[in-house]
Amino acid sequence: MGAGHAHPLYLEHGSRVHRAPAEVKLVCLVVFVFAVVATGREMFWPYLCFALILVVVWRLGNVPLRWIAPRMLIEAPFVVLAVLLPFTEGGERLSVAGLSLSVAGLYAAWGIVIKGTLGVAASLTFAATTPARELPRALGRLGVPATITPVIVMMLRYIDVLSAEIRRQHIARLARGDSPRMAHQAGAIAKGVGSLFLRSYERGERVHLAMMSRGFTGTIPEMAPVTTSVRATRRQWVIVLTPAATAVAVAVTAWGVR
């Protein structure tokens, strides 16, 4: 299942970042995100350092900014939430262009936007440089229970299937004269969401029955390319974790000079 599936977020390149072991890149991603989240929102220079770390990784991995930028729109709902915080939070206030804004709300909005942006950018970097077929091996080598790995892999696989189903429903509505952007079509959109849920549930049952009929026991069987691949060396761990270690050093320094 996972061996032949190419995720749409994956960029085919032969860079050093692409060739790095997936399990090490996954650890690097998690540590980097934790370092960003742990950094105080009252400071600004650490986030510039985090952004520079990502830019360096993009250069090494041949990931263009024009590819990253449009996919960052996934965080748009959180940005909308952040914009409202300076108006709704209490405490000390200041006047900007005739608007009364909460200082605590401004810091909270800044923290949500910058941490969310860096987290999404780092996740996109991992997705762009790591084939989906390597994820089961990476999770297994990191000690993730064998019962959880298939759930994660199937989720990644069928997010793409559901996205394609949503696109087909959208095209079908347009072909029948629907105007999805008009408020009076809210009922039709709600019915479409319900239909998508039912189709997804039924598809899941069919896929599960098909897998059980083919001898699926709850764990993904080991494949030859996976079992014979070489584990990450100590040198690879040190080199690939350098961005995460740098991020941790920045976060610790930020707390020390706070």
From TrEMBL:
<dbReference type="Pfam" id="PF02361">
    <property type="entry name" value="CbiQ"/>
</dbReference>
<dbReference type="InterPro" id="IPR051611">
    <property type="entry name" value="ECF_transporter_component"/>
</dbReference>
<dbReference type="InterPro" id="IPR003339">
    <property type="entry name" value="ABC/ECF_trnsptr_transmembrane"/>
</dbReference>
<feature type="transmembrane region" description="Helical">
    <location>
        <begin position="107"/>
        <end position="127"/>
    </location>
</feature>
<keyword id="KW-0472">Membrane</keyword>
<protein>
    <submittedName>
        <fullName>Cobalt ABC transporter, inner membrane subunit CbiQ</fullName>
    </submittedName>
</protein>
<feature type="transmembrane region" description="Helical">
    <location>
        <begin position="237"/>
        <end position="257"/>
    </location>
</feature>
<feature type="transmembrane region" description="Helical">
    <location>
        <begin position="44"/>
        <end position="61"/>
    </location>
</feature>
<keyword id="KW-1133">Transmembrane helix</keyword>
<dbReference type="GO" id="GO:0006824">
    <property type="term" value="P:cobalt ion transport"/>
</dbReference>
<keyword id="KW-0812">Transmembrane</keyword>
<keyword id="KW-1003">Cell membrane</keyword>
<dbReference type="InterPro" id="IPR012809">
    <property type="entry name" value="ECF_CbiQ"/>
</dbReference>
<dbReference type="GO" id="GO:0043190">
    <property type="term" value="C:ATP-binding cassette (ABC) transporter complex"/>
</dbReference>
<feature type="transmembrane region" description="Helical">
    <location>
        <begin position="20"/>
        <end position="38"/>
    </location>
</feature>
<feature type="transmembrane region" description="Helical">
    <location>
        <begin position="68"/>
        <end position="87"/>
    </location>
</feature>
<feature type="transmembrane region" description="Helical">
    <location>
        <begin position="139"/>
        <end position="159"/>
    </location>
</feature>
